[in-house]
Amino acid sequence: MRDPVSFLGEEYRALVDKELDWRLRVLEGASRPRCRVDGRDVIMLCSNNYLNLSNHPKVKEAAIAAVRSHGAGSGSVRPIAGNMDLHIELELRLAAFKGVDASLVYQTGFAANAGLIPQLAGSGDLIVSDELNHGSIIDGVRLSKASRTVYRHCDHVHLEEVLTEAEEHTPPHRRILIITDGVFSMDGDMAPLDRIASVAAKHGSMVYVDDAHGEGVLGEGGRGIVSHFGLKRDTVHVEMGTFSKAFGVVGGHISGSKELVDFALNMSRTWLLSGSHPPAVAAACIAAIDVLETEPEHVKDLWRNTEYFRKGIQDIGFDTGKSVTPIVPIMIGRSAAAKTFSQRLYELGVFALPIVFPMVSQDGARIRTIMNAALTDEDLDEALCAFEKTGKELDLV
Ligand SMILES: *Cc1c(COP(=O)(O)O)cnc(C)c1O
What we know:
Elements: H1 6-17, E1 34-37, E2 40-44, H2 57-70, H3 85-98, E3 102-106, H4 109-120, E4 126-130, H5 135-142, E5 147-151, H6 156-166, E6 176-181, H7 193-203, E7 206-210, H8 225-228, E8 238-242, E9 252-256, H9 258-267, H10 269-272, H11 279-294, H12 297-316, E10 327-333, H13 335-347, E11 350-351, E12 354-355, E13 365-370, H14 377-393
Parallel strand pairs: 2-11, 4-5, 4-6, 6-7, 7-8
Antiparallel strand pairs: 1-2, 3-9, 8-9, 10-13, 12-13
Helix pairs in contact: 2-11, 3-11, 4-5, 6-7, 12-14
The protein binds pyridoxal-5'-phosphate.
């Protein structure tokens, strides 16, 4: 008789043979610009903790105080007995920060995309997605009964062609939902959200932006991509984001109209059927918003470090691709070279992971770095030295 679970080992070994398996590194202690990974002291260049808020005393103290006052867990899902005053306060604070009518917090950003997208568009509708959107959007779209199509990456002209063609469809689509990442995490480039919003308005389509890498980074005081482009709130119907990146904690959210939040709350199965955040998470997120509102220096430092590092990398002779954000890819080419590069950097005390095929094209392998507001000039200079040394060793510069 055949072993019913033999595929587990077989498929895993096939990944190992192709070097496509994840070999997890262990972070020993806090995620900081200088930290310890697998027993080695390194400069951290691949965390999403853009503003170092996970280590901010206000944020940490808020979490500790909430455990004391509200306990370790919430006891339930939000719609039953797990809707705490802290969750409501977080949503009010977030909506005020973003300048929208209402916000809804999900357990994670992934849960927001997977829970809401299939409800916004269903049978008889059409979802039009940027071809390089994040995996959580792809899964949200797969859960939907809507028809789906993609437009070329960041190409609003192609988007308009797709929408024009969609208007010929019989029977007509009930609704059309356009979805895009705000900042794309492989290249650090930005969606032309202003163009997308005006094309959408012309065709009467909804716009949904996933601002996971834009909030805390772009716009006035880190208010995100809608603020960056100075768009009117009613031209982008859903702003989705995460507390797990620049906010330094964990959790997802959507922001927009009161109707959007009422709808999302009643329809998203991930929201209705999964336990709510522990009090410490909600309180830490509130404190992170507080810090963003009162200490503008963190976002400024992030951008200053980004300009300094990107220029330093380019001066060495590396190509940083299309990056216009604190995500700075260093283009290497072949996967094997990118892997060797990352390993060599680690030995030199710099932690930055390679992004290789199939996440990017065969010859598009890169080292992806993500800047942090709390990196010092000394950290950045040391990192740049390691890049230069490794680049020369491998004959890349
Ligand atoms: C990280 C990320 C998510 C998922 O957010 P989590 O809160 O970590 O689940 C969703 N979309 C994009 C574009 C992301 O980069």
